[in-house]
Write a structure and sequence with these properties.
Largest sheet: 4 strands, mixed
Shape: globular
Distance between the termini: 28 Å
Number of strands: 4
Mean pLDDT: 90
Strand order of the largest sheet: 2-1-3-4
Number of domains: 2
Strand content: 5-15%
Number of helices: 10
Helix content: 40-55%
Low-confidence stretches: none
Length: 213
């Protein structure tokens, strides 16, 4: 499966979930409903002037204003905009950029929707998606763990593999789980099946760290 096909599938998966739960459903993104999450994805792709505020604190108020305006649109229309993809002039319309920036983004946000619902069930395993997610997990240490004074390694459970160090340091904790759950944990989500092992004080430090991305 090509990366273009994979990102298209993840885009549709997210859109399908958003429609299934409805605009007022909760998500794992604190303070956001499904409507807010849909608006976030739409402005990220289609409003670069506002999307900058997602990572630049000084522009966060402008981003919030534009996102609120997007969220005020009819919900079905908002999700349809997400599903159809970015405008042609957007950098995300370039297939390679879309795949690099959105496969993980959509997979994580789909779980933000799915896992916030009562009696949710895990998504079906996807070996090709697992490889993309695991590759991302191996490269996230510098940013996701910048405030963690520990060594961290990850151990995937979907296939036989050695543990991989994503951050050097001592003592070391090991995160064990599926590629999807590992990525979500490194993105700061705690509604995951990830086992954290190591010395008790190191595990406590890791579990109390703010990994929000």
């Amino acid at each position: 499966m090509s990366t273009s096909t994979l990102v298209h599938g993840e885009r549709n998966n997210l859109a399908d979930l958003l429609l299934a739960v409805g605009p007022d459903a909760p998500t794992l993104c604190e303070g956001w409903t499904a409507r807010d999450l849909a608006a976030h994805v739409v402005i990220r792709e289609g409003r670069p002037d506002a999307a900058v505020g997602i990572v630049v604190a000084q522009l966060a108020n402008w981003t919030s204003k534009v996102q609120a305006e997007a969220a005020a649109r009819p919900y079905d229309e908002l999700v349809a905009t997400l599903r159809q993809g970015p405008p042609r002039w957007s950098p995300f319309s370039i297939a390679a950029v879309d795949a690099a920036a959105n496969i993980v983004e959509f997979a994580v946000h789909a779980e933000d929707v799915r896992r916030a619902q009562p009696n949710w069930t895990p998504r079906a395993d996807d070996p090709e998606l697992n490889e993309v997610l695991y590759k991302r997990a191996t490269k996230m240490g510098r940013v996701a763990l910048r405030g963690v004074s520990l060594g961290v390694e990850i151990q995937r459970t979907d296939v036989p593999a050695a543990a991989f160090a994503i951050k050097t340091g001592s003592p070391i904790v090991t995160l064990t789980g599926s590629p999807l759950d590992l990525v979500m944990r490194l993105y700061g989500r705690t509604e995951v099946s990830v086992q954290v092992t190591g010395a008790a004080d190191a595990v406590a430090i890791f579990n109390s760290a703010d990994l929000s991305l």
